[in-house]
Specification:
mainly alpha
């Protein structure tokens, strides 16, 4: 019996095949529907298609790509199924083939995730600029422009970090673990850095409109009080 101590063996799957299919089919359909409604409203209301709309469309393409990865992975037994533990030479070849497919899908999926996150964040920023950027230049304009540069740099950095995580040996992602250890950087650390920084940039992006909403609320409240005072003064006279 051959020794396979260098290979991971997962005897239990974390999710079922049907759940993987559901993620690969339902989520993209929902996103396509919502994006289609967005463009439909733009056309019916005679609003100009803006940068934010095109960016969300690019994000949708990557989300659909993620769905395709899930469907292919589930269909090939690479996702949602327990990984076999090989104990014969034939099993080893099948296991290596499955391992290669899993890692290739993970590699492509990670690229889709990075691009989708970047495009969604940028779309939100440009939507906020469309809604709140009235006077140019303004403090809000400078802040959102800086955020757009930051998110673009963040997306590009992680995109190339994912592609060249194994240097020029891209196939190191789905080669043997010995080759992985030889050429590839600490991929777990890179993934953790992406997740943490993505959460931080999400928070920064979502906090952007709060000062503008607060300012407009106070301005509307002031105008309302001024109008009431003026009405009372006219009534008294």
């Amino acid at each position: 019996m051959a020794n396979f101590t260098n290979w991971d063996s997962r005897e239990l799957s974390l999710v079922s095949t049907s759940e993987v299919y559901a993620a690969g089919i339902v989520f993209p359909i929902v996103c396509v529907t919502v994006t289609g409604l967005r463009f439909y409203v733009r056309s019916t209301q005679k609003f100009q298609i803006g940068i934010d709309d095109w960016l969300i469309l690019f994000a949708l393409v990557n989300i659909c790509g993620m769905g395709i990865c899930f469907i292919v992975g589930a269909a090939k037994g690479a996702m949602g199924s327990p990984s076999p533990v090989p104990d014969t030479e034939m099993d080893e070849k099948e296991y290596l083939s499955l391992y290669t497919l899993i890692e290739k899908l993970n590699f492509i999926l990670q690229i889709f995730i990075i691009l989708a996150c970047g495009f969604v964040k940028l779309s939100i920023i440009f939507l906020l600029r469309r809604l709140f950027l009235i006077h140019r230049p303004s403090r809000f304009g400078y802040i959102t422009a800086a955020m757009a540069v930051l998110i673009t740099s963040w997306t590009v950095a992680f995109f190339f970090a994912e592609i060249f995580g194994c240097g020029v040996h891209v196939n190191g992602y789905w080669s043997t673990q010995e080759r992985d250890f030889k050429y590839c950087s600490d991929l777990d650390t890179a993934i953790a850095a992406f997740v943490i920084s993505s959460f931080i940039t999400d928070l920064m992006t979502l906090l952007l409109p709060i000062p503008m909403v607060s300012f407009r609320y106070e301005a509307a409240k002031f105008n309302y009080r001024s109008a009431n005072q003026l009405s009372l003064n006219r009534s008294g006279s």
